[in-house]
Specification:
Elements lengths: L5 E2 L2 E2 H29 L13 H17 L1 H11 L2 H19 L4 H28 L8 H29 L2 H21 L16 H7 L5 H24 L5 H9 L3 E2 L4 E2 L8 H22 L6 H14 L1 H14 L4 H29 L5 H29 L1 H21 L1 H8 L5 E2 L2 E2 L8
Antiparallel strand pairs: 1-2, 3-4, 5-6
Helix pairs in contact: 1-2, 1-5, 1-6, 1-7, 2-5, 2-15, 3-4, 3-5, 3-15, 4-5, 4-7, 5-15, 6-7, 6-11, 6-14, 9-12, 9-14, 9-15, 9-16, 9-17, 11-14, 12-14, 12-16, 13-14, 13-16, 15-16
């Protein structure tokens, strides 16, 4: 591996990937913040949308977000087998810039064309750039988890500022201007990645550039340990589906609820908060709470308490699901008073964020620890496909709420997430045995699984 300069104790290439992903997430979360609102906006107003029904808008949102993440599977294959991660990330960035630029054109055909470019662009970029982060660190380097946490902060800085800028411009000045600004953000990310190539030498290179020894190693069949670890990964992907099926109510059902049923006027300012701004809440909480929660887990682990990735992911599902109790309270208040307070949304997003901080960053690192090297980007792609499936289920939950009622849906999510998380915790010991000590690293060496008494 090329010896890289260090910044804050990490390879400088991490920060190239940090800023590239930050702007990619700016473009994606900006789009996410206004897509459903744009689709349901009346076609007869000055800032015209398409005037779709909520059901049709949620269905398209679900299909779009599902395909965005599902495309990470072919994107991972392209990165692993042909172009290498680095060139595939570059290709993804170009496709994203094209896609967002096309969305700025105010025709239905341009709208669908732009979505297609974005779907393939995210697919090429997302799984491969995450794999490149793992590639910056040698096996056994205990900075890997911290590196992914730093990378995750980059994701959420982009996720925080996008709804504030893209959402405001889209709601106030014009939806298509908002789409265009999202494209400008992605262009900045692509430029960052291009000029940061000198700090990524030897990272994400195509398979044909590997040594003959490495190519021969990659052709070997999977060992029993590798097969066991893949089983653990697949179970963790099931947790991913459940987590995002609940969490992604934010862009659909909760976004509509904010727009239509939440009292958003700040009286002393005589100003109404744009509905899309609440999409920034989780990213704000992630940036502000990320370091304290990481410190808590460090302290927790030092005390010898359970801190495996599977444990954190299951706990994250439970905590995130409990956030919907506040949305149930909001629904009850709306039923009684005809509107609900903004603080219910903020509290729900706070608990969603704590759950996400427990589950999502460690999931990315977990994959790079357990996945066989030759299938690194493919398994990362499967992770994002699971995320996409969760998004698709989330949209259908939003559709069901149109008939079942929001109060019942929000309570149902809480109950299901709690029961599912507790089930995974009950299976924790056998799952850790199947991981064969992948997370137990001491002084750069992996402890043999039979010495861990797992």
């Amino acid at each position: 591996m090329h010896q890289q300069k260090q910044v804050f104790g990490h390879p400088i290439g991490l920060f190239v990937l940090f800023f590239t992903e930050m702007w990619e997430r700016f473009s994606y979360y900006g789009m996410r913040a206004i897509l459903v609102l744009f689709l349901v906006a009346s076609s007869k107003t000055a800032n015209a949308g398409y005037g779709w029904t909520e059901t049709d808008a949620l269905k398209l949102y679900g299909i779009y977000t599902f395909l965005v993440y599902l495309s990470s599977v072919p994107g991972g294959i392209i990165g692993d087998k042909w172009l290498g991660q680095k060139k595939t990330v570059m290709l993804g960035g170009v496709l994203l810039v094209i896609g967002h630029s096309v969305l700025a054109i105010q025709t239905l055909s341009a709208f669908y064309t732009g979505l297609v470019f974005i779907i393939f662009g995210v697919g090429c970029l997302k799984s491969n750039i995450s794999t490149m982060v793992g590639g910056l660190y040698l096996p056994g380097d205990d900075r890997r988890d911290k590196g992914f946490s730093i990378f995750y902060i980059g994701i959420n800085i982009g996720g925080f500022i996008a709804p504030l800028i893209v959402g405001y411009v889209g709601e106030i000045y014009g939806w298509h201007y908002g789409f265009a600004i999202a494209g400008i953000g992605m262009a900045i990310g692509l430029i960052t990645f291009i000029f940061g190539q000198k700090h990524l030498k030897g990272i994400g290179e195509p398979a044909k550039a590997l040594s003959l020894e490495k190519q021969e190693e990659n052709r070997k069949p999977l060992t029993r340990i590798e097969k066991d670890r893949i089983i653990v990964l697949l179970i963790s992907f099931l947790m991913v589906v459940v987590f995002w099926a609940a969490y992604e109510q934010a862009g659909g059902l909760m976004n509509l609820y904010t727009k239509q049923k939440t009292y958003r006027t700040i009286e002393f300012l005589n100003w109404t908060v744009p509905a899309s701004w609440f999409q920034s809440s989780t990213s704000f909480f992630i940036v502000t709470l990320g370091a304290p929660l990481a410190a808590f887990w460090y302290y927790w682990k030092k005390k010898g308490r359970e801190s495996s990735s599977i444990f954190k992911m299951a706990l994250g599902v439970i905590i995130m699901g409990s956030g919907f109790l506040f949305m149930a309270a909001a629904s009850y208040q709306y039923k009684i008073e005809g509107s609900s307070a903004m603080y219910w949304l903020v509290l729900a997003y706070l608990f969603h964020t704590i759950g996400e901080l427990c589950a999502s960053p460690v999931a990315l690192s977990f994959i790079t620890k357990l996945a066989p090297l030759k299938y690194g980007s493919i398994m990362m792609g499967v992770y994002f496909a699971a995320t996409g499936l969760g998004n698709y289920v989330a949209a259908w939950i939003g559709v069901w709420s149109q008939t079942a009622g929001e109060l019942q849906i929000f309570l149902g999510i809480t109950i299901f997430c709690t029961c599912f998380g507790l089930l995974i915790l009950a299976l924790l010991k056998p799952l850790k045995r199947l991981a064969h000590g992948a997370e137990d690293i001491v002084m750069g060496e992996q402890i043999p699984s039979d010495a861990l008494n797992l």
